[in-house]
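haha ok so turns out i had the wrong file open the whole time. this is the CORRECT one, sorry everyone. sequence first:
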Amino acid sequence: MSTLLAGVSRVNITPPVGMYLVGMERSENSHGLRDDLFATALALSDGQVEVVIVSMDVLVVNPEFVARVRQETSVRSGVPVGNVLLHATHCHSGPLTFAFPGSQPMLRAYVDNLFYLLVGLVQMAHDRLAPAVLGFGRGQTRIGINRRLTRPDGVTVIAPNPERPVDPEVGVVRIDHADGRPLAVLVNYACHPVVLGNGSNVISADWPGAMRRLVESATGATCLFIQGAGADINPWPGVPCDREDVLERLGMQIGGEVVSTWAGIEPAAAERIAVDGQKIELPLLPPSQFEGRLPKFVELEEAMGGMTWDQLQAWLDEKGPWRAEIVGQGDERRAVMELQAIRLGQVGLVSAAGEIFVKTGLAVKARSPFAHTLFAGYSNGLVCYIPLPEDYPNGGYEVFEAYLACRLPAPVAPQAAGMVEDAAVSLLERLKTST
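then structure:
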């Protein structure tokens, strides 16, 4: 019987006040600090296979940056490149994590430092591997609500819609030292961290930060938050409200559920660790199928002061310097997405480099061969929103507008969601049957 080993580490990744905060249409740079941002690493090994899960309080990670961190981590700690998962909590009040040579000096300095912080973070978690036990539990909360609403006039807007689905499950993985002392708790839930919005220019981890503080205070374990399939899920009241009391209340609500669930988990003495991954190519819409939606870009152009297309691209280079890998040409263009799956005994964790709609995450969980399944978006990069086929007729931000900010030449095609679902389930099935 194998012995589970686990190690945890954390570093502060708070940017300097004055840095641009990505995720909202803010007109000014940050002017204050509400709470610190962190990167937390959990290393797990069964003596044969080691994996490291890193959770960061940032909006998104660039795939080029991910590749650099993985490569240097492999050299320094020996963890294989494909065994490191770099996850963004999708924080909308934090910094960019990638810079071009022409980016502002403050951003370039921050990203350079972040690279070395993350490499050292993984090294520390690896070096702290020690005998441990692991268990899983499920809680429920409804701090999130679906945010896609089609009005009577046919226009789809970001607004609360209780008629569309949510995933109320709070997945909790409890990791203790072999002698029973708390070590780490991994929390999985699907909901945008956007209590703070355009009206707030302070650095903050939003409600996941409040949740984490409560969980750590109550359990004594280091808490990692893993964002789920929350592309179309916002926290109550459904749109950013810029109220810190709401942020704290929602954090306490889910945090209390985590603590209650954690307390009822009986960790097991030994667990098997395994990892697998693949890249899939998601088709993009040909211009003939989405050019009718381009008036939305005209509205965006007017809102940004009459920018030309080239000016918009230059602006996006500074405000959103991440790009998915594109293969093919013309109508055959495809965006490359990485998926990664990790087996933690009877727990299956599968991740995708995209903003995944909640219905897809629910479908993956329902089809998973594991007794317990966690779904993570925003991992190892970001392609864009991956809407459901039935959402295309109604359009809206996620379907026909977000691709511009995500630096795609066109929106993903309707079949993309099904491809992500099938690939995620296939990875879980391979892990379940592997020896």
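The first helix runs from residue 63 to 77.
again sry for the mixup
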